[in-house]
Specification:
By secondary structure, this protein is mostly beta strands. Among the domains are: 30 residues; 99 residues, PapC, N-terminal domain (Ubiquitin-like (UB roll)), CATH 3.10.20; 180 residues, Immunoglobulin-like, CATH 2.60.40.2610; 64 residues, Outer membrane usher protein (Immunoglobulin-like); 81 residues; 79 residues, Immunoglobulin-like, CATH 2.60.40.2070. The chain contains three helices and 55 strands. The strands form nine sheets. It has a 24-stranded antiparallel β-barrel. Strands 4-3-2-1-6-5 form a six-stranded mixed beta sheet. Strands 50-49-52-53-55 form a five-stranded antiparallel beta sheet, with no helix packed on it.
């Protein structure tokens, strides 16, 4: 019994000690191995009252287990870590969703879903950030290389198109454009001169000075211009000033809303983008959320598929329906145009017929969002004020509707309403628009004598089927005051057999004029080598028509082309044959026509004359940007445009490239293998970016080596040993002697001195040098005369 009582007392004392120990341990911090630490909260070493004060930590940051290669400044206070919003944003945390300033500190424990593990021994922190608070990795699937600033040199361009016709209606006409360009802008004038029988005249078309600013995407034009218009307004010619936005100054700028596709990757992986089952882009993304911007290759309705892989390597495909309409403006983007001056009359008939009343016109478009674009237009002149507003609204993937209302006051008072709908998809396309004018609605064109149509209707339905066929229906209604209305319906069927054969059957009917109808069947056959045969047969307004022609136009690189045609319209047969030649200096066409009993011969010559770099160059017609290649007088050098040989420099070392893309990359190079052996080049390739309607000088600085191979013999008549040092006194350059006593010396003057030293031999060579033809000269053997003291080379 006593032993039992003693055992019981020992058990009670043990229990009391265990309870005390347990209570004591509950007051002490528990430290676990790092590999057992849970990542839910910050793990910090035991602290006392002294360590509760804030301290600075500079830690290497990982995000979701991936190194960011960044060291970030953190603040530790009371076992909690914080960092500035700017630093967290730099490592991929979407701090803008917390609505805090960049300089403000963010408590990591306060970010929803964010956990972290602090490794004090390695001064490292691993942030576990949910996708909702990660900045998505963004990349542009249409990314293009940065374009250098466009430039322009100074010069003159004369475009011409001369046409001569023989027979009963013999005549000669010469269309021309005179254009001066420099870095400030372009001065242009166009017109045509007539010379036939007793009628000799010149009619001016357009004269203007234009200036563009790529930084503001704006163009200012002074002189003859055409006013801007919207789908529910009309343009008119005017002489005065125009100030407008010009997106052509940035060809890489996408002006319409383009979808951005979001996604998320569990691990770093490759991503493929398919548009309507055609792969458009492939790239790599890190783990976490990503966004594919500027999805390419689609207009209208379609489907985008993003393909990624999960942690086990399995393919994950996500499909998203899309709809893209190029008429909408990108969010935040605006276009504008303002014109003021005097309306142009009798264009093409009178050179200087302008209305005496001043007029003004303005248009504006703005992308409010990716689904809404607003429009406005206004016009005014003496006795007329016109203003209107409109909008285009995208209804998801179901298309785009548009509407506008405008009104005019003054001598022409009335209103106009417009509404339309467009939907484009691989299966069906619909385009419908109706415009109604009420009262005596008018605009600038109506004030000048061309009334506004009271009714304008347009409906088109196209249905592709069986991959290579398309069936379409269309209706056009048009009514102008004091003129009979027109209502025309048409139907068409198109069948393509590969890329070589195409059949088209079409018919139309004017519902207002029942005798006005027609049907046409046409076929086209490609024979290869740029040759095609076309045939058509039909009936129009009660008369039969038929036509057969074969055509082979000249290749772009130059050469001959031809064409023959035979047909008839009603009881009148006609025939034609022509031959063409396209060269570097222009295009010539000779033709013979026979219509009924009348035979006419014609000759047409088109081309350009360019004055630039103190030279006169003949070229094909120059419509936009161009370049004049210069090789400093070296002839016969092949010139390449986008890795394609397009010609050789002429006797003056020039070649004109007439068709560069303005404000875009144009790679121009020369074949250095065709240069003389003594020629030297700074570069063989240039990236040219010309301004619109302007030329740039592509100068490939070709210089000649002033060098020669000198054969030197020593005083004993033998070749100077290889390895001897050579000092050219005039240039100060050093070289050595090679085998057979030959040394190569550059920088030669008319009179030259060489000092040669090989340790035992100290001698001097004097010689004269003159440039003689192409290639490097060989001079010698020359005797090296001993000198008493060596000059240090």
């Amino acid at each position: 019994m006593e032993r039992t009582r003693r055992a019981t007392r020992r058990g009670r004392r043990a229990c009391r000690r265990f309870a005390a120990l347990t209570s004591l341990m509950s007051l002490m911090p528990l430290t676990l191995p790092a590999w057992l630490a849970a990542p839910v909260r910050a793990q910090t070493p035991p602290v006392d009252a002294g360590t509760m004060n804030a301290r600075d930590l500079y830690l290497e940051v990982d995000v979701n287990g991936e190194s960011t290669s960044r060291i970030v400044h953190f603040r530790q206070l009371g076992g909690r870590l914080s960092a500035s919003a700017e630093d967290l944003d730099a490592v991929g945390v979407a701090t803008q969703r917390l609505h805090v300033a960049d300089a403000q500190n963010v408590d990591l424990d306060a970010v929803p879903g964010l956990h972290y593990r602090y490794d004090a021994s390695h001064q490292r922190i691993d942030l576990q950030v949910p996708d909702a608070f990660r900045k998505p990795y963004q990349f542009d699937s249409r990314a293009v290389a940065a374009i250098p600033p466009a430039r322009s040199d100074r010069g003159l361009v004369l475009n011409y198109d001369a046409y001569a016709q023989s027979g009963a209606a013999s005549e000669f006409a010469l269309w021309s454009e005179e254009r001066y360009f420099d870095p400030l802008g372009v001065l242009s004038n166009t017109g045509v001169g007539y010379l036939y029988r007793a009628h000799n005249s010149y009619v001016r078309y357009d004269s203007s000075w234009s200036m563009s600013n790529p930084a503001t995407l704006a163009t200012t034009q002074i002189g003859d211009t055409i006013t801007s218009s919207l789908a529910w307004s009309r343009s008119i010619r005017m002489g005065g000033v125009q100030w407008r936005s010009n997106f052509a100054l940035r060809p890489d700028l996408v002006t319409f809303p383009v979808p951005a596709l979001p996604g998320s990757a569990v691990v770093p992986t490759g991503v493929d983008l398919y548009i309507n089952s055609v792969r458009q882009f492939s790239g790599n993304v890190p783990s976490g959320p990503f966004i594919i911007n500027d999805v390419p290759g689609i207009t209208g309705a379609g489907q985008a598929t993003v393909v990624t892989r999960d942690a086990l390597g399995r393919t994950i495909a996500t499909s998203v329906p899309l709809y893209v309409d190029t008429r909408l403006m990108a969010p935040g983007l605006s276009s504008y145009s303002f014109e003021a001056g005097f309306l142009r009359r009798n264009y093409g008939l009178d050179s200087f017929d302008y209305d005496t009343r001043p007029a003004a016109s303005a248009s504006w478009r703005h992308g409010v969002s990716s689904h809404l674009t607003l429009e406005a237009h206004g016009e005014l002149t003496g006795g007329l004020y016109n203003a209107g507003v409109g909008a285009l609204f995208g209804i998801g993937t179901a298309g785009v509707i548009n509407g506008a209302v405008s009104a005019s006051t003054g001598k022409l008072a009335g209103t106009q309403l417009s509404i339309g709908y467009q939907y484009v998809s691989p299966r069906v396309s619909i385009d419908a628009q109706t415009i109604r004018a009420f009262g005596n609605y008018g605009d600038l064109a109506a004030r000048d004598g061309t009334p506004v149509p009271t009714t304008t209707d347009r409906v088109t339905l196209a249905i592709p089927f069986l991959r290579s066929q398309t069936f379409s229906l269309s209706y056009i209604g048009y009514k102008i005051p004091s003129a009979p209305p027109s209502q025309i319906g048409s139907v068409a069927w198109t069948f393509n057999f590969g890329n070589l054969v195409s059949l088209n059957l079409s018919a139309y009917q004017d519902f207002r004029q029942h005798n006005s109808r027609g049907v046409l069947l046409s076929a086209s056959l490609g024979l290869g080598h740029n040759t095609s045969v076309n045939a058509s047969v039909g009936r129009q307004d009660g008369a039969s028509t038929w036509n057969v022609n074969a055509l082979q136009p000249p290749d772009y690189a130059g050469g001959w082309g031809w064409g023959v045609q035979n047909g008839g319209a009603g009881a009148t047969p006609y025939r034609q044959a022509q031959v063409q030649y396209l060269g570097n200096y222009g295009e010539a066409t000779a033709s013979v026509q026979q219509a009924g009993s009348q035979t006419i011969g014609a000759f047409d010559l088109t081309g350009a004359v360019v004055l630039m770099d103190r030279s006169v160059e003949l070229a094909r017609r120059v419509d936009d940007g161009f370049a004049l290649v210069s090789t400093d007088g070296v002839a016969g050098i092949p010139v390449l445009h986008e890795n394609r040989v397009i010609g050789m420099t002429d006797g003056g070392g020039h070649l004109l490239i007439p068709d560069l893309n303005a404000y875009q990359h144009n790679q121009v190079a020369i074949d250095a293998m065709k240069l003389p052996a003594d020629a030297r080049l700074a570069t063989t390739s240039l990236d040219l970016v010309p301004q619109s309607q302007s030329g740039v000088l592509a100068h490939f600085g070709v210089t000649r080596y002033r060098a020669a191979s000198i054969i030197v013999n020593g005083p004993d008549g033998r070749h100077v040993p290889a390895g001897a040092r050579v000092h050219h006194v005039e240039s100060g350059r050093d070289t050595i002697v090679g085998y057979d006593g030959i040394t190569f010396v550059d920088g030669l003057e008319d009179d030259n001195h060489l000092l040669i030293d090989n340790g035992s031999l100290h001698c001097e060579v004097a010689f004269a040098w003159r440039q003689q033809g192409d290639g490097l000269q060989t001079i010698g053997p020359l005797a090296c005369k001993p000198v008493t003291a060596s000059a240090p080379p």
